[in-house]
Specification:
- The chain has 195 residues and is mainly alpha-helical.
- The protein has one domain: Orthogonal Bundle (Hypothetical protein af1432).
- 59% of the residues lie in helices and 0% in strands.
- It is built from nine helices and no strands.
- Helix 2 crosses helix 7.
- The chain is globular, with a radius of gyration of 17 Å.
Length: 195
């Protein structure tokens, strides 16, 4: 418990890089993801194992206790080893609970079950909704998150897709025609663009 408490103090780095003065913590992100997943589960007609959903949502960032939060722009550099490192950290952090939690996190990453798709849709919805809230509050430069909204995949969770449409519209209203300035995000050795 004491180690997991660190997630309440660990800021989400993407928001820090966007210039948000007092960004949400990793713990805030997990809590809101769980709330959104619960609400979405109530809006679909298929039976959902809420215990699985809430466990996945609450523990999906547990490895960040030791690895910290990495922004999405770090993905090209760390993708290959990040999941393995997070899993190994989770084993050490969770101890006796790892046998119960880690299979659910593996299920989440595979996205083959309704519960996993629901949590993944909720997590990404939480991120774009947070962008909308920060844009409304005029905190930082959130224009980069238009891309996340445009790429949002509800994974077949219809209520999530409907909420994402509202988020996209509101984010557009809050940002207006403010362009995204990509200064400093050049990458060498990028793979060729897919046509």
């Amino acid at each position: 418990m004491a180690e997991l408490h660190a997630l309440t103090k660990l800021p989400r780095i993407g928001w820090v890089l966007a210039g948000v003065a007092n960004p949400e913590s990793v713990s805030d992100h997990c809590f809101e993801t769980a709330i959104i997943a619960y609400i979405l589960a109530q809006q679909i007609d298929e039976p959902v194992e809420l215990g699985k959903v809430l466990t996945m949502a609450l523990f999906h960032e547990v490895g960040e206790v030791r690895l910290t939060d990495l922004p999405r722009r770090s993905s090209p550099y760390v993708r290959e080893f990040k999941r393995k490192a997070e899993r190994e950290a989770a084993v050490d952090i969770l101890g006796d609970l790892a046998g119960e939690v880690l299979p659910l996190l593996d299920e989440l990453h595979e996205l083959k079950t309704l519960e996993a798709r629901l949590v993944e849709a909720a997590e990404e919805l939480q991120i774009i909704a947070a962008a909308m809230y920060y844009a409304k509050e005029n905190q930082g430069d959130i224009s980069e998150y238009r891309r996340d909204v445009a790429r949002y995949d509800a994974l077949g969770i219809v209520p999530a897709a409907l909420v994402a449409e509202v988020v996209a519209r509101r984010l557009g209203e809050y940002l207006g025609d403010r362009p995204y300035w990509e200064l400093g995000y050049r990458r060498e050795n990028q793979p060729p663009a897919k046509e």
